[in-house]
Design brief:
The protein has helices at about 20-35, 55-70, 85-95, 115-125, 140, 145-155, 170-175, 190-195, 210-225, 225-245, 250-260, 275-285, and strands at about 5-10, 40-45, 75-80, 100-105, 130-135, 160-165, 185, 200-205. With about 290 residues, the chain is α/β, with parallel strands linked by helices. β2 (about 40-45), α2 (about 55-70) and β3 (about 75-80) form a beta-alpha-beta unit. An 8-stranded parallel barrel has the order 1-2-3-4-5-6-7-8, surrounded by 5 helices.
Length: about 290
């Protein structure tokens, strides 16, 4: 399975009443593929405000995304939760929609042991035939999916990749010992280039909503051996990588999209829109 180098974790467009703006889904997907050069899209992930979407909204959004992408990029659907039974039930429904892979987050809040994490992912993987990408984001889940557990999970045939927001030490340990062809993606925009340097496949990004083309160029420079140009572009983009997370995501990236004329609305509570001052800061990143 080739998901490419730059995968965008897509926002969910809302209207003025914070209902999903179904008419905006196709233009947003076209923009991300054609203008920002996304190789794959994650639908209903953290950036897509999955915690506040209903299952029915998720199913419709995923179905439309598969249809509108039309094979131009891979569609990875977020179906994970902190309830193994629900994750299995929902993943089986989503599998039927024709997605290329499922993104399964480490169970949050209940803080399982490493054996519990292994059994959770194993049970989900065995319940479907579609490819699975693990998602480790300790800052949100309260638990780290350790390198050793990821390596162990990589031996399961349809667990083909991981999105890991841990440091490069953990990424390196996974790369050293995971199953052949197991793909490792960084989930931290500012670590995209360092992650490539230790052998990661690419980045699952929020910033690529607005600087995807530049990120593709940075990666291309690196892969061609133009490391100085890659490093220079990384340093130039770094304020955006970090600035869009100054306040809780995805409010800043939705504001950045609006500055580019791409309307994706506000965010659902408990998130709130950026303030006027925060909006001015985000605008300054692109001057």
């Amino acid at each position: 399975m080739d998901f490419g180098r730059v995968i965008t974790a897509m926002v969910t467009p809302f209207d003025e009443n914070l209902q999903v703006n179904w008419e905006q889904v196709e233009p947003l997907i076209n923009y991300l593929i054609e203008e920002q050069q996304s190789d794959s899209l994650v639908i209903c992930g953290t950036t897509g405000e999955a915690p506040t979407l209903t299952d029915d909204e998720k199913l419709k959004l995923i179905e439309l995304s598969v249809r509108y992408a039309g094979g131009r990029c891979k569609i990875i659907a977020g179906t994970g939760s902190n309830d193994t039974a629900h994750t299995i039930h929902f993943s089986q429904k989503v599998e039927k929609l024709g997605v290329d892979a499922l993104l399964i987050v480490a169970p949050y809040y209940n803080r399982p042991s490493q054996e519990g994490l292994y059994q959770h992912f194993k049970a989900v993987a065995e319940s479907v035939q579609v490819s699975i990408m693990l998602y480790n984001v300790p800052g949100r889940t309260g638990v780290n999916l350790d390198a050793e557990t990821t390596i162990r999970l990589s031996q399961i045939p349809n667990i083909v990749a991981t999105k890991d927001c841990a440091n490069t030490d953990q990424l390196t340990r996974i790369l050293n010992d995971a199953a052949p062809n197991f793909l490792v993606y960084s989930g931290d925009d500012s670590s995209a280039l360092p992650a490539l340097a230790v052998g990661c496949q690419g980045i699952i990004s929020v910033a690529s909503h607005v600087i995807g083309k530049e990120m593709q160029s940075m990666i291309k420079y690196y892969l061609e051996g133009n490391t100085q140009q890659a490093a220079e572009l990384h340093r130039k983009l770094h304020p955006v990588f970090t600035g869009i997370f100054r306040v809780p995501s995805p409010a800043p990236i939705k504001h950045a999209l609006a500055l580019k004329g791409i309307q994706t609305g506000g965010v659902r509570l408990p998130l709130v829109r950026v303030s006027e001052q925060e909006g001015q800061f985000i605008q300054s990143l692109f001057v």
